[in-house]
């Protein structure tokens, strides 16, 4: 059990560019979650997968955001045409019951 | 819509003291409640999970209680240490098959040596 891993850990991009983040869950976990956390706030739910099926999406996930989990293992979160308001920590979690979180990807949009 | 509140937002306590962190939620239809710890710039570490049917859970110096009917949970930390300094977040998972967690904004705890 190596825990949940996320890459990259930090990303700086210019407004309007596309970015993609990767999450590798704990291997036996079939559920995978994405959250976004801004400074001084608790994480906010974005989306959730069970195996490869995306079962729920928050209204925070605008049409510029897309998440995939093609083989039910790792997941990617892509943000197109980034805006300064997208600057945040993007957290991935996996689990059956208890959600185990990764270290996050910190995005800064200039 | 579920709302989770944690008061106070920040707390400073001398080393060795016992302390209690509070979490309240507006909708009592929850499946479970989790307490997390977050160090600056890091991800979340799960501390304790309490099922809706349970009253409390213990792990080492930590004890979490749940009063579902009143919408409250507490995290008790015994014999605090400087290494306990972090932000503590509570999160509730709603009932009826919805798996997303709703988080509070956290309590930033500082243990003074």
Topology:
The complex is a heterodimer of chains A (110) and B (113).
Chain A: E1 5-7, E2 10-13, E3 19-24, E4 31-37, E5 44-50, E6 53-57, E7 65-68, E8 75-79, E9 88-95, E10 100-101, E11 105-109
Parallel strand pairs in A: 2-11
Antiparallel strand pairs in A: 1-3, 3-8, 4-5, 4-9, 5-6, 7-8, 9-10, 9-11
Chain B: E1 4-5, E2 10-14, E3 19-25, E4 30-38, E5 44-51, E6 56-59, E7 62-67, E8 72-77, E9 86-94, E10 102-103, E11 107-112
Parallel strand pairs in B: 2-11
Antiparallel strand pairs in B: 1-3, 3-8, 4-5, 4-9, 6-7, 7-8, 9-10, 9-11
Could you characterize the architecture of this molecule?
The complex is a heterodimer of chains A (110) and B (113). Helix content of chain A is 0%, strand content 51%. Chain A is an all-beta fold. In chain A, strands 2, 4, 5, 6, 9, 10 and 11 form a seven-stranded mixed sheet that branches. Chain B has 113 residues and is mainly β. Chain B has no helices and eleven strands. In chain B, strands 2, 4, 5, 9, 10 and 11 form a six-stranded mixed sheet that branches. A five-stranded antiparallel sheet of chain B has the order 1-3-8-7-6, with no helix packed on it. In chain B, a hairpin with a 4-residue loop joins strand 7 (62-67) and strand 8. The mean pLDDT of chain B is 94. The A-B interface holds A 4, 6, 31, 33, 35, 40-45, 48, 55-56, 58, 91, 93, 97-104, 106 and B 4, 32, 34, 36, 41-46, 49, 89, 91, 98-106.
Brief digest:
Chain A has 110 residues and is mainly β. Chain A has strands spanning 5-7, 10-13, 19-24, 31-37, 44-50, 53-57, 65-68, 75-79, 88-95, 100-101, 105-109. Chain A is 0% helix and 51% strand.
User: What is the strand content of chain A?
Assistant: over 45%
- Sheet bearing the most strands of chain B, described? 6 strands, mixed
- Secondary-structure-derived class of chain A: mainly beta
Low-confidence parts of chain A: none
Largest sheet of chain A: 7 strands, mixed
Question: What is the tally of helical segments of chain B?
Answer: 0
The value of Rg of chain A in angstroms is 13 Å
Counted beta strands of chain B:
11
Largest interface: A-B, 26 and 22 residues
Helix content of chain B: under 10%
């Amino acid at each position: 059990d190596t825990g949940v891993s996320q890459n990259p850990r930090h990303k700086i991009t210019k407004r309007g560019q596309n970015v993609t983040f990767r999450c590798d869950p704990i291997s036996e976990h079939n559920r995978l979650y994405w959250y976004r956390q801004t400074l001084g706030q608790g994480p906010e739910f974005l989306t959730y997968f069970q195996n490869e099926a995306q079962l729920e999406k928050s209204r925070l996930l605008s049409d510029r955001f897309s998440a995939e989990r093609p083989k039910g293992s790792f997941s990617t979160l892509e943000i197109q045409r980034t805006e300064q308001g997208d600057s945040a920590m993007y957290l991935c979690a996996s689990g059956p019951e208890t959600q185990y979180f990764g270290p996050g990807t910190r995005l800064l949009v200039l | 819509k579920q709302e989770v509140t944690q008061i106070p937002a920040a707390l400073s306590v001398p080393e060795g003291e016992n302390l209690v962190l509070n979490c309240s939620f507006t909708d009592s239809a929850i499946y479970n409640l989790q307490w997390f710890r977050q160090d600056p710039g890091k991800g979340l570490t799960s501390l304790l999970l309490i099922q809706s049917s349970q009253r409390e859970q213990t792990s080492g110096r930590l004890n979490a209680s749940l009063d579902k009917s009143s919408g409250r949970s507490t995290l008790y930390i015994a014999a605090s240490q400087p290494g306990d300094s972090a932000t503590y977040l509570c999160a509730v998972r709603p009932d009826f098959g919805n798996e997303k967690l709703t988080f509070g904004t956290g309590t930033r705890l500082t243990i003074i040596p």
